[in-house]
Amino acid sequence: xxxxxxxxxxxxxxxxxxxxxxxxxxxxxxxxxxxxxxxxxxxxxxxxxxxxxxxxxxxxxxxxxxxxxxxxxxxxxxxxxxxxxxxxxxxxxxxxxxxxxxxxxxxxxxxxxxxxxxxxxxxxxxxxxxxxxxxxxxxxxxxxxxxxxxxxxxxxxxxxxxxxxxxxxxxxxxxxxxxxxxxxxxxxxxxxxxxxxxxxxxxxxxxxxxxxxxxxxxxxxxxxxxxxxxxxxxxxxxxxxxxxxxxxxxxxxxxxxxxxx
Length: 261
Fold this sequence. Notes:
Elements: H1 3-16, H2 37-44, H3 48-55, H4 64-73, H5 78-88, H6 93-96, H7 100-109, E1 117-120, E2 126-129, H8 131-136, H9 152-158, H10 160-165, H11 169-184, H12 194-203, H13 205-212, E3 222-228, E4 232-241, E5 250-256
């Protein structure tokens, strides 16, 4: 986004917020509407010059912490906060994870899907799955609750069953790492993400090699083939949905693949 869009957005919301609503006491007549730049800077613990340059559209960097303070001081709604971070080119992890009711609805949705379906969080831990997914993913979703295999990457690289279940494992495993790198994006260095990556690098030479390739690809879906120990060869079309209010979660469905013409 052009930097002046971010500056205009902040200025408009600064001018709409009354000092009293921000907890400031005012005396006398004010020439400008809303908060002054100096007042916004004080409330956000930044310099007035930085606010001025930001509103003027200059190339200044805004950290996620400062953007969070701006969103709180300006009393932005969830949609406005998301837009602020989008304009700044930053990922708002705390904002995405704050909508608990949306997460509950996403988790509950898998029970109403007849095809294998599961919900992954940002670390690709399985947050929910239906019976069809449990029956398909031998060694992952059919294991006891709380086991390390609940993470899709741990299962793929550390569970022996995965190499038999996932058809053409070397190709699929390499692509999975490229999809994960694209998916985690700016959160790759987060405190919650780094232990998982470190563990996988220490436990799997293949993961280490794929991770160090720095390949990135979108989670585009497509044909997925499994060699199930009881049901034999199974072919699905994978579809992934990202809920609008919880981009840290994803709903994955494996639909019956249509026969080739």
